[in-house]
Specification:
Elements: H1 2-23, H2 26-40, E1 46-55, E2 59-71, E3 74-87, E4 95-102, E5 105-112, E6 122-133, H3 134-142, E7 148-149, E8 151-161, E9 169-176, E10 179-187, E11 190-195, E12 197-205, E13 208-217, E14 221-230, E15 239-248, H4 250-256, E16 262-264, E17 267-270, E18 273-276, E19 288-294, E20 299-303
Antiparallel strand pairs: 1-2, 2-3, 3-4, 4-5, 5-6, 6-8, 7-10, 8-9, 9-12, 10-11, 12-13, 13-14, 14-15, 15-19, 16-17, 17-18, 19-20
Length: 306
């Protein structure tokens, strides 16, 4: 009896899945999804989905999902090689697994969806982003305006009211693997900064990405930082407001002056920054305050505070 009930229950599901697979209206559905993508991201001039299909038993697979636009005369884009949405759990409309392949890396998110009545309940997500090639990503978003090498990782969670998904709050941890980035202007005689790792705790709320406890560890410079990134469309226009302390290698610090350090008024001047004499007697005294402003595409850097 149990076997008969099982067969009667499973067979219709298999039949429905087969019919959906054979008769799935791929092209009309692709065009519909393109329009929805453009509506969700109105700031971008072009939204595209190259292919879309149904994959039994409960997945939608899209290939070549992209956004592009021209902002202040400069082109910016974002592209996913593959995007898969899979209904999971029971009932199937309450849980969704989202996976994507982009710029050599992987994205994964497990979503608990609001109740069937629109606007009821909360959207809860746990996500991870791993091994994204920063060089390829920066070429797309920043149009290759400067060299960035390394790999990006981000993991955390996100929660929002069902009627306002973009207005939620998320938290997680940002990590960059070994790499380097070029500087628009030299800093302490450096034109590029190499690093073994970069990490920071991140909180997303109200359109801002807040960074805390940030560390950069490199061969010539170590740095601690914190601050805010005000997200914008395109991402390259996001405003930076960061500050912290950088600790250059002793040789780099001495070379930055371009000549032997000049003494005066109880301290020494390196690259225009006055350092108290007593602070130069200890390793920790080499920590120099700094500020970063501007945007992701055109950041500004200055030593000192205020």
């Amino acid at each position: 009896m149990a076997r008969r009930v099982f067969l009667y229950g499973v067979y219709p599901l298999l039949l429905i899945a087969t019919l959906l697979y054979l008769r799935f209206p791929a092209e009309p559905f692709r065009l519909f999804c393109e329009r929805q993508l453009a509506a969700v991201f109105p700031g971008w001039s072009t939204a595209r989905i190259d292919t879309i299909d149904f994959q039994p038993p409960a997945s939608i697979v899209a290939g070549g999902v992209g956004l592009s636009g021209t902002f202040d005369g400069e082109t910016s884009s974002l592209y996913l090689d593959r995007l898969t949405l899979t209904a999971t759990g029971w009932p199937p409309h309450r849980a969704l697994l989202v996976t994507a392949e982009l710029y050599g890396g992987r994205f994964r998110a497990e979503l608990a969806l609001p109740l069937p009545r629109i606007g009821a309940g909360e959207l809860v997500a746990r996500f991870s982003l791993a091994e994204v090639d920063l060089g390829r990503l920066s070429t797309a978003l920043l149009a290759g305006r400067r060299e960035i090498v390394g790999h990006l990782g981000l993991s955390g969670s996100y929660q929002a009211a069902g009627e306002q998904p973009p207005g939620g709050r998320g938290s997680g941890r940002l990590q960059l693997g070994a790499g380097k980035f070029s500087l628009l202007e030299p800093v302490l005689s450096l034109t590029a900064v190499s690093y073994s790792r970069v990490e920071a705790a991140v909180v997303f709320a109200g359109g801002d990405l807040q960074l805390a406890g940030g560390v950069l560890r490199g061969g010539e410079i170590d740095a601690d930082f914190r601050g805010t990134v005000r997200l914008a469309t395109p991402l390259s226009a996001s405003a930076l407001s960061l500050d912290g302390e950088l600790t250059p290698d002793e040789t780099l610090l001495r070379a930055a002056a371009g000549s032997p350090p000049r003494s005066g008024a109880g301290g020494q001047s390196f690259g225009g920054l006055q350092l108290p004499e007593e602070r130069l007697q200890q390793h920790s005294s080499r920590a120099l305050p700094f500020q970063v402003g501007g945007t992701l595409s055109r950041p500004t850097f200055r030593l000192g505070r205020g």
